[in-house]
Amino acid sequence: MYKVIDIIEPDFGCEGVPEGQEPCCEVVLKNESGEIKNVSVPDAELYRKDILPGSVVSFENGIIEKI
Question: Is 13 helix (H, G, I), strand (E, B) or coil?
């Protein structure tokens, strides 16, 4: 189990998201032992799963799920 500490959205500037690329956010996770892990998750997935800073999640095999 992890707590979402921060979600860092990329800044593509005035060029926008490169064509054919899905925008991803850097998600900062902290486990119960205090270890920090940074993972890249598609922005749309975070919205679809309602994952925000403070959410408690699982992250296994590259898949993030809200608990």
Answer: helix
CATH number, residue 27: 2.40.50.140
Instruction: Examine residue 53 and state whether it is found in any structural domain, yes or no.
Output: yes
DSSP secondary structure of 2-13: EEEEEEE----G
Q: List pLDDT tens digits, range 22-50.
A: 788 999 999 999 999 999 999 999 999 99
Contact indicator for 27, 9 with CB cutoff of 8 Å: no
31: Cβ contacts below 8 Å, ≥ 6 apart = 1, 2, 37
* pTM beyond cutoff 0.70: yes
